[in-house]
Amino acid sequence: MIVEKVAHLRNTVANSNVLLKAYLWKLRYFKPKVLFSLDTSRFVIKTVENSHELEKALNLRYEVFYEELLNRKAFLNIDVDKFDPVCDHLIILDKRSERVVGTYRLISSTYSNRFYSETEFLMENLKSAPGNKLELGRACVHKDYRNGITLALLWKGISEYMRRIDARYLFGCSSINTTNIVEISLIYRYLKELHLSSDDFRIYPRERHIIRHINQYLETFDRFEIKTETIEELIPPLLKSYIKAGAKVCGEPALDRKFKCADFLTVLDIELLNDSYEKRYRTANG
Fold it and tell me: What would the pLDDT profile of 93-108 be if each residue is shown by its tens digit?
């Protein structure tokens, strides 16, 4: 039995390495779909234009998602999957250190009909809506640069990308870094009450990502009359920034067991973007 388990583990590792090598081979020839670069006094906001820059972005993702959040190692010091070769990557470069200090993964319906969010959610209601859609994902910032300036610079880059592809909707998985069902349910209650999308954009998790009994927890909170304002402090900063911009959640969260978190599918109609928020990030200089 032990021999069989060891053999199975060896095969799993070998298969994972094969997949990783295949992704890396594709990334060697990476070319951006939309290329731009914006300068501030200290930073450059741009889309990745070659495999060298892309590797820096994937290194940062590895540091944040694997080392910080999961406290574990991967085969190589990068976070990569099948979507990385077919999308664009927004990065912030610190001119002083030449380090990538922030990144977003951008998948536009202009160039792809497959999205990461579809691995967790049934997306037909959103995909069938008119207009170009832009999926935001894999957002992360180096721990030494987590401040309002960096977030504003990322939004500045997203704004430029939206303008160039004429995007109508922004969407993506907004993560809550917990698998505690009570905490997840509290956050869902807050978002459902104050920031739920219209029925036209109702999205449901795929079967394997459903969080069981979440609505029973909501009913319990109602019986105990838990106040919505007491929950707001549980909302992560990135999700708060989406809400301030005018984003809505599309329904129940999905459980992401790999990254030990819950994901809310959020969507932002660019035509309803909060004016004051738009002005703030368009003028960000850093």
Answer: 999 999 999 999 999 9
